[in-house]
Design a protein that fits this description.
By secondary structure, the protein is an alpha+beta fold. It is 33% helix and 17% strand. One of its GO terms (molecular function) is RNA binding.
């Protein structure tokens, strides 16, 4: 038997794309979801976990429904990804945050390099680069685009089979070690010295500073310290663009085999083109949000933001298919920055567009560089 209240209510829309067309529905920033007030005055919240409207006061029913879809080891009470959470954790804008930055103790630099042994005698920097840049962007010299790869020779000038590779980001070190330590440098070629060994490098390799200090001398235009500082900032900006454009693990470059694509999750509506234009740093924020949330389900090997797609497309590659499947199931229909996400496993036919590091004009580069200068000066 249908209740009187149910008879008086108009049907509730079940497709999030239709919510904007219903006057009864509004988005609650507090609840981080949509709310609906029906004709009888009753309040309902949209539960993205079960894809249905739930009475606000019926917490027991909501908990029961959530338990049905709960994934072991994952806190379903936390939002999928909260883009505002990290910004709030960084502190509010104003004097308080600036004071906090000044009081923050200086942290020791993180290692960004790996030391490699048991390399073939006839290898070279280019071959080493092709092998190791699959796991991260390799740093470059300040005076040019020369990859920071060093080969070691004995006193007679003979290559010792040892090399140093410096990455731009410290996260690449663990990934390179995981994927390359204990394997042959060239497939099918076993060396007398055994398989390649890849270990974290010590800090003795740092003959040049990654970034000149932002002291008073470096801020004075015309000084050598200032020129070095400007050079370092420009190189840092260039490497950040390469990092955003890095697509060696781009799913579109993966051979079309089902086993590979089963590990890739395609997420839509992560951003709008306007939001990226308003906040150039949003791409890195999105990647960090996804990694923070996605690593609850398994190891993430790459995140690609397709910043030229109107649908706000991001792909996430996991180390195994089960983690990808669980993440896609949990993410589909969840809210992010006021938008409803669509997540699914890639089928290999997708072709998405993203910008190249060469797409930035001089004005864009100068604007980014100026912002970076201001951050260093704080």
């Amino acid at each position: 038997m249908v209740s009187t209240d149910a008879q008086q209510r108009a049907p509730f829309p079940s497709n999030p794309e239709e919510f904007d067309n219903d006057e009864r529905i509004s988005y609650s920033k507090v609840a981080q979801t949509y709310v609906l007030e029906d004709e009888t005055g009753g309040e309902w919240e949209w539960s993205s976990k079960v894809n249905k409207w739930v009475p606000v006061t019926d917490e027991a029913l909501l908990a029961q429904q959530q338990s049905i879809y709960k994934i072991e080891g994952v806190d379903e009470n936390a939002p999928a990804m909260d883009p505002k959470k990290r910004k709030a954790a960084d502190g509010d804008s104003g004097n308080a945050s600036k004071a906090a930055k000044k009081q923050k103790p200086e942290q020791p630099p993180k290692n960004k390099a790996v030391f490699i042994t048991s390399l073939p005698e006839d290898t070279n920097k280019e071959e080493i680069k092709k092998t190791f840049d699959r796991y991260g962007v390799i740093a470059e010299s300040l005076d040019g685009n020369v990859p920071r790869i060093k080969l070691y020779y004995d006193e007679n000038g003979k290559f010792k089979g040892e090399a140093l590779v410096v990455y731009f980001r410290p996260e690449s070190v663990d990934l390179a070690i995981t994927m390359l330590d204990g394997v042959d440098f060239r497939m099918g070629q076993t060396l007398p010295t055994g398989p390649m060994r890849v270990v974290p490098a010590d800090q003795s390799f740092k003959s040049q500073k990654d970034q000149p200090l932002a002291d008073e001398q470096a801020k004075k235009k015309g000084t050598t310290a200032n020129r070095d500082r400007q050079k370092a900032m420009k190189k840092n900006e260039e490497m950040n663009r390469k990092l955003a454009d890095w697509d060696d693990d781009d799913p579109q470059a993966i051979p079309n085999t089902s086993s590979r694509h089963d590990k890739v999750v395609v997420i839509k509506h992560m951003f709008t083109l306007k939001s990226l234009a308003d906040e150039p740093e949003a791409i890195m924020d999105i990647k960090e949000d996804i990694r923070e949330d996605g690593e609850k389900y398994g190891q993430i090997t790459n995140v690609v933001v397709y910043d030229k797609e109107d649908d706000g497309v991001v792909t996430v590659r996991f180390s195994d298919a089960t983690a990808a499947k669980d993440y896609a199931k949990a993410t589909n229909g969840r809210a992010y920055d006021g938008r409803w996400l669509k997540a699914s496993i890639a089928d290999g036919s997708e072709r998405y567009k993203k910008s190249s590091k060469y797409d930035l004009d001089d004005a864009d580069e100068e604007a980014r560089l100026q912002k970076y200068r201001e951050e260093l000066d704080e």
